[in-house]
């Protein structure tokens, strides 16, 4: 499905903020407004968006180019307007953009919202009207375009800024419509939807009452209101699966040359919720709850270190939940660290890059707290997607995104299976022992590092195929020889049962000793593998994104 996102205005009501930045790129919790819209569109399956530009068009164009380079699944198209055409004029001159669409969206980029677009589209399909208008309740109906609806949601009156309003339901600037709308666009250059089009659709369009968050940030009062709230509530950070090279991200190894891993983020997450408290106390809820008067009293070492680093020392409530228990080999502690840092810095109005988040997380876990872990988990959580990371002798980390085709992504999602062994453990002991014995296992670790290089080449040049399974298997056999506690009889038995039932290869995820077994298995053998292994299976997919804000209030 396609959408128009109307973004070309001068942002006059936002000056002086918009003297040097277009209103569609003003930062909300450190993230451009357009980026919020792209997250919303992707979530609801909108795959192509036309953005009109005029004022400071070069800045918007840079965003479009950057966003399209990320290959998120949503493609942005620019429509530059030498002279502003109005909300209806942009649609009128771009009919070819939606010529084969049964229905499409028109949205005003002034809004900050988490509206359920899927429900809006379902509502429109059910009502079968010419247009569905998103509506919100306003206390100032004389300042808005106001719709009056009947018991069937049919709009029987629409007036811009009425002197005697008949309702408090205002036009939100979010529409679903179809190609018949072009019959109602007047034959002129500048067309205003609210004044020139919508009045002619009375008794032909329906009103959808928005129950989700929506704020018009097109004026300084509302923008500052959003800014003063001081928070973005919900942050999610993916867990990861490491395919090969694990252990070469430890300083005991990479300081002798370099380390390398290939890993992927998955759609299982650590969630961080932040709120401002009514007083100066601090409340942190994880597997237990702490309510303290000062930062120094916090027992959770990572949370305390993150708050100290970000400079947040009072008056907050932080809640953490995870899709998967800790100690299962999916990098949950590092995902927690990255996610909490993202939340804390955004709370303070500062947006960190994925690289900055990962670096700060490494600093906290390794340098400040002295955990004997590597660096791959923090970077996988911050960046998301499938990546090749190298760890240089000087501690620098380089990232190369592995951009496999959509078909290969679907194959990876369908052929990889994960089974939970039921064993939870701390990785610190195994990793500390591995670091201590690194010099004796250089041949094995060199093999695993070189295998990461080979896997990167395989995925980039040939794609996802059976050779991937063979690499998983070979790497696992090598890894088991590093430290005895990496595997045990039960884990070996489960893995062998999977191979005997038809899996082509696999490994234990994480440092070892428990957690999840990952296998590559063609679809025709998957039922047999499930029955043979007899363990809980975790359904998952590769996650495109790293740590990010997903909800605001």
Give the uncertain stretches in residue-range form: none
Percent range for β-strand residues: 25-35%
CATH architecture of the largest domain: 2-Layer Sandwich
**CATH C-level label of the largest domain:** Alpha Beta
Q: What helical percentage do the residues reach? A: 25-40%
Q: What is the number of independent domains?
A: 2
The CA-CA distance between the termini, in Å, is 27 Å
Shape: elongated
- Compute the average pLDDT: 91
- Total strands: 25
Number of helices: 17
Could you name the CATH topology of the largest domain? Ribosomal Protein S5, domain 2
- What's the gyration radius in Å? 26 Å
Structural class: alpha+beta
**Main sheet, how many strands, which sense, barrel?**
9 strands, mixed
List the helices and strands and how they pair.
Elements: E1 2-6, E2 27-28, E3 31-32, H1 33-43, E4 48-53, H2 57-69, E5 75-80, H3 86-93, E6 104-108, E7 111-113, H4 117-127, E8 131-137, E9 145-149, E10 155-160, E11 169-177, H5 193-197, E12 205-209, E13 214-216, H6 220-228, E14 234-244, H7 251-254, E15 258-276, E16 282-285, E17 289-292, H8 301-310, E18 316-322, H9 332-347, H10 354-368, H11 376-383, E19 386-392, E20 397-401, H12 406-415, E21 416-420, H13 427-436, H14 442-461, H15 466-479, H16 489-501, E22 505-508, E23 516-520, H17 523-533, E24 536-538, E25 548-551
Parallel strand pairs: 1-4, 1-6, 4-5, 8-12, 16-18
Antiparallel strand pairs: 2-3, 6-11, 7-13, 8-11, 9-10, 9-11, 14-15, 14-25, 15-18, 15-19, 16-17, 19-20, 21-23, 21-24, 22-23
Helix pairs in contact: 8-9, 8-10, 9-10, 9-11, 10-11, 14-15, 16-17
């Amino acid at each position: 499905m396609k959408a128009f996102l109307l973004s070309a205005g001068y942002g006059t009501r936002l000056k002086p903020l918009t003297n040097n930045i277009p209103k569609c790129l003003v930062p909300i919790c450190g993230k451009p407004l357009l980026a919020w819209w792209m997250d919303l569109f992707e979530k609801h399956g909108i795959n192509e968006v036309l953005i009109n530009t005029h004022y400071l068009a070069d800045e918007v164009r840079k965003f479009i180019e950057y966003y399209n380079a990320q290959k998120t699944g949503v493609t942005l198209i620019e429509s530059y307007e030498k002279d502003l055409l109005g909300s209806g004029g942009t649609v009128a001159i771009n009919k070819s953009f939606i010529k084969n669409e049964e229905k499409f969206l028109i949205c005003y980029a002034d809004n900050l919202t988490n509206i359920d677009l899927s429900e809006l589209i379902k509502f429109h399909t059910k009502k079968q009207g010419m247009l569905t208008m998103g509506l919100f309740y306003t206390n100032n109906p004389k300042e808005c375009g106001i719709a009056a609806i009947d018991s069937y949601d049919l709009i029987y009156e629409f007036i811009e800024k009425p002197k005697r309003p008949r309702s408090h339901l205002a036009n939100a600037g979010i529409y679903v419509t179809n190609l018949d709308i072009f019959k109602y666009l007047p034959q002129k250059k500048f067309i205003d939807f609210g004044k020139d089009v919508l009045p002619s659709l009375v008794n032909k369009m329906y009103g959808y009452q928005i129950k989700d968050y929506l704020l018009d940030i097109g004026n300084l009062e509302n923008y500052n209101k959003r800014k003063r709230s001081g928070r973005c509530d919900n942050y999610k950070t993916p867990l990861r699966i490491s395919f090969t090279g694990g252990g070469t991200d430890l300083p005991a190894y990479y300081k002798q040359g370099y380390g390398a891993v290939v890993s992927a983020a998955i759609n299982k997450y650590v969630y961080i919720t932040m709120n401002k408290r009514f007083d100066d106390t601090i409340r942190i809820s994880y597997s237990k709850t702490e309510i303290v008067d000062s930062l120094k009293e916090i027992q959770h070492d990572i949370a305390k270190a993150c708050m100290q680093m970000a400079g947040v020392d009072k008056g907050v409530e932080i809640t953490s939940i995870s899709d998967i228990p800790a100690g299962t080999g999916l990098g949950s502690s590092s995902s927690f660290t990255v996610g909490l840092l993202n939340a804390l810095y955004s709370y303070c109005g500062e947006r960190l890059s994925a690289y900055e988040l990962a670096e700060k997380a490494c600093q906290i876990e390794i340098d400040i707290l002295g955990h004997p872990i590597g660096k791959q988990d923090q970077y996988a959580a911050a960046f998301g997607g499938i990546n090749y990371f190298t760890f240089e002798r000087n501690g620098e980390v380089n990232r190369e995104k592995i951009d496999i085709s959509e078909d290969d992504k679907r194959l990876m999602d369908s052929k990889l299976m994960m089974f939970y062994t039921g064993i939870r453990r701390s990785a610190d002991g195994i990793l500390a022992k591995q670091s201590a014995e690194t010099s004796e296992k250089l041949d094995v670790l060199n093999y695993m590092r070189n295998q990461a290089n080979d896997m990167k080449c395989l995925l980039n040049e040939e794609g996802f195929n059976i050779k991937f399974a063979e690499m998983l298997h070979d790497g696992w056999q090598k890894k088991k020889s590093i430290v005895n506690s990496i595997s045990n009889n039960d884990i070996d038995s489960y893995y062998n049962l999977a191979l005997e039932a038809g899996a082509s290869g696999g490994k234990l995820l994480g440092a070892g000793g428990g957690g999840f077994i990952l296998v590559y298995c063609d679809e025709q053998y998957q039922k047999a593998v499930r029955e043979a292994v007899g363990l809980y299976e975790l359904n998952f997919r590769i996650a495109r994104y790293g740590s990010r804000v997903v909800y605001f209030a």
